Structure formats: structure tokens, C-alpha cells
Amino acid sequence: AQKVTQAQTEISVVEKEDVTLDCVYETRDTTYYLFWYKQPPSGELVFLIRRNSFDEQNEISGRYSWNFQKSTSSFNFTITASQVVDSAVYFCALSDRHSNNAGNMLTFGGGTRLMVKP
Amino acid sequence: DTGVSQDPRHKITKRGQNVTFRCDPISEHNRLYWYRQTLGQGPEFLTYFQNEAQLEKSRLLSDRFSAERPKGSFSTLEIQRTEQGDSAMYLCASSSGLAGVVSYNEQFFGPGTRLTVL
Predict the structure, then answer these.
(1) How far apart are CA B66 and CA B80, in angstroms?
(2) Residue B33's closest chain A neighbor by CA?
(3) Which of A22, A37, A117, B41 has its CA 20 to 30 A from that of A5?
(4) Using CB atoms and an 8 Å cut-off, which of residues 18-77 of chain A contact chain B?
(5) Which of B32, B69, B104, B106 to mutate to test the interface with A (most CBs of A within 10 A)?
(6) Which run of H or E residues covers position B65?
(7) How many CB atoms lie within 10 A of CB B102?
């Protein structure tokens, strides 16, 4: 069965520090997609990125970057020069062929609460 | 372009009462999902619609839960004889994707309905 683990339940950093959020996943499928979502205090989940299992290239978008390593089943997320507005809960999620009977149902990790202090 | 909307945003009810929530997806999206999120946890999949057809239901969806999407547009989630354990945030999401076609498109989430059962 598919599973997503975010071992860091809470991280606190000072503004301008870099921070990496870890995500480890389990799946028996060779075709799958990984996602990151942000949930600010307002509660609405905001889509950040989608990555398929055949593309291990790292991706950078502004201060955000993602490192996908199939060898370690990890899809880590780094925020460079963190800002107070980055404070939120971040979720990693997986969708694979097994779950695709449900039209890409997402399996979420438990989330990491990031607190960025001024 | 409006996002996913949910109504009500908050619902307080007494144990044993019935409640109904509504979700309006992004207009061109034909896939609609319901998730449940309890405090400090990641969202958990409940059910999925492709247009008006309910194609998958999680084991979390007990007999007291029923969901509909009568015309393939908005959806309702009803909980009968509510229990204190039903207290959670109920999230609706939508995505694009053709019927019968495997896809892993990102899901866009609404603000959620927070249910409190006293």
C-alpha cells in the first residue's frame, strides 16, 4: 500500500534561514506522481508542485526547490531565505496507479508545521 | 476564474443530528473529491466523482455518510446521526481529467467546512 512519511512534525527557523522539509514515500508502482501542498493558517490547501516518477531532475521556482531521489524514495522541499509568510503546514502527497482507480486519489503525509520567526 | 467553494465554512451540531455540506468545483473540472482532515493530520480521501458518477469510496466513508453530484457540477456530502468522532475539517477538491483516462492532474482545494459535533 502507498504511504507518505513526513518525519518532521514541526520546524522553527529565523527569517532568512534556509530550511528543508523531508518527505519519504512508499509505493509498489513504477508510475506515480508526487505533490507538495501548503496549508496556511487560513486553512486552504495551495498546490505547489507536481513531479512524475520518471523525472528526477531537481526543480527550482524562486526561493523554492525540490530534490527528488528515487533511490531513497524521497522528495524533499527546500525554502531558501525563508520569510515570515512561509509559515504554514506543508504536506507531501503521492498518487500512484493503485490509487488511480480513484482518479488520482492523493495519499498525504502527516504534514510539517513550519514557523518562521522575524 | 473562481476557485473551489464550500458552504458552510463552519458547522456546529449536536450529536445525532444530520448535516449536509456543499461543494462547488472549478467550473471546467469534471473530477471532484472529498477528503477529511482531523487536527494535526494530513487529509484523508473519502470519495471521488467523475462527472456525476461516484467511482470510489474509502473505507472511512461509513453508512452514515452519503455523497452526491447530481448533475456533474456541485456536490453534497451528508452525514446522518453525527457522532463526536465526525468532528473534522471536510475538504473538497476538483481537477480536470477525462473519463477512463489515467491522469495525475493537480487537485485544487476549497477552504473546507469545519464540523464540530457536541
Answers:
(1) 8
(2) A105
(3) A117
(4) 32-33, 35, 37, 42-47, 50, 52
(5) B104
(6) strand B65-68
(7) 12
Compute the half-sphere exposure of residue A83: CA atoms within 13 Å on the CB side of its CA: 4
Query: What DSSP string runs through B79-90?
Result: ESS--GGG-EEE
Kindly report, residue by residue over A53-84, the tens digit of the pLDDT: 988 888 888 999 999 999 999 999 999 999 99
Could you tell me the three cell numbers for B62? 461509513
CA distance B94 to B9: 17
3-state SS assignment for residue A85: helix
Q: Which residues pair with B10 in a beta bridge?
A: B114
User: Smallest Cβ distance to B91: which of A45, A97, A109?
Assistant: A45
Give the up-direction half-sphere exposure of residue B33: CA atoms within 13 A in the CB hemisphere: 27
Q: Say how many C-beta atoms besides its own lie within 10 A of residue A102's C-beta.
A: 19
Using a pLDDT cut of 90, give the percent of chain A over it.
75
pLDDT at A43: 87
